[in-house]
Structures are given as C-alpha cells and as structure tokens.
Amino acid sequence: MTSVSRDQSRTLDQLIGANIRRHRERSSLSQDQFVTHVRDAGIFWARSTLAAIEAGERAVTLQELAKLSVFRHKALETWFAGEPDELIDLDGTHAPRKGLVSLVNGARFDEMGSSAERLRRSEGLDGRDWSPIVDAQIRGIEEAFDTAHKAMQRWWPRGPKDSVADVILAARGDAEMKAARRLGISSIEVSALAHRLWGRGLSEEREARLAPTTDSASRATQAQRGWVTRTLLAELEEHINRKGS
After folding, report:
1. What's CA 143's distance to the chain center, in Å?
2. Which pLDDT score is estimated for 117?
C-alpha cells in the first residue's frame, strides 16, 4: 500500500482531472475525440478546456461530473479514485480521499464532519494523533459551506440547498476566478449569481455558448471565446448593478 504525505497531496481538481484523463485514455480517445463525444451529453468543452481539466488547472462542476457519469455509465466515485491513504488538498486543508468518496456515496455532511472523533473512526485512523489535521479539515469544509450559503443568500436567495456543492465546485473555475477580480466580488459569489442566472457555473455557461469546433486553438475560436466571456461578464455586471441601485 502506498502512503501519500501531505506534502505530496494533490488538489481536488488534480485528482478529478487525472481520473478523467485515465478514463479517456483507456477508451482510446484523443482529446479532440473526447470533447466531440461528450457534447452528446450536454458537456460543451473545448479541447483546451479538457487539457486544463486533465492538468488540474480547471475545476469540473458537479453537474458536469454527473452528466459525464450518466453518459459514460460510470459511478460518480470513479472520478475520485486514488491511493487508499491519500490526502486531498482543499485550498490549504487536507481531507482523506476516502472521506470524500464517502460523501459522494451519500454520507450526510454532519455524519462526516460534525466531530473529529467520528471522522477518525470512519477513516480507520484510531491510534494516531490526527486531531489537528482532522479539525482543520472540518473547519475548512464548514467555512466553505458557510461562505457559499452567505453568497447564495445574497445572490440566489431562492436557490435550492442541495446546490451549495455545485456553487462551491464551480467557484474554482478559471472563468469564475477572473470574473471575481473584474467584478470585485468573491468567486463563490460569482458562482452563486451564475447559477441563479443560467443554472450552472460561468465556465460551463461559456463553453455552452461557444459554437462547436474541432480546432479550439484557432484565432477565430479564441476570438469567439473572448466575445462570449465579455458578454457573460456584462450580464453579471448588469445584475450586480441592479441589485446595488
């Protein structure tokens, strides 16, 4: 059994991206073939988007993972496969990969995160002093959910409670991060507002509006992506200005 230290831990984006790449390669599909294939599932990725995902540089939304799982006949936990003892870096806190899989498989949040002792038992960590790490994990997760709840109350007050995870995951997208800097709000607020307006994250909405193409690196495609991005930012800014007026 391989043990993975905190210093060697991957981010959640890297874990999911590596599993998507592994699945694509086992299916003998090139990146261009794969993005063309998954369009039938309503996943509108460009090849450059897939490349960024596989490199762990672009977050995948929960909605995208769900569509991919259904379309490819895979369990959702497929995209969270890794070393048994692996710790996943969640923006500075480290969660056991098996604990994330348990959440994906239906364990309630309070069952996994309400106490350090319960989490230690569920992960088989008794006998080792994991308390500081586990406590930090719990605080990090609870803070992320609390931040997302506050963002939804401000920008998407009628949003369903089970959309919080979607908002958190989408907030890690490159488009969300850049929009946050441009608009002067947090990426989670960008994500919450995007879900209210379009029912999905900004990154996913941008890819959906792009015309299908086989050459994602062409100047025309890059120009279209820039135009779509500016249009989406204008729509977000208009809504923010209306709320502030």
Report:
1. 16
2. 45
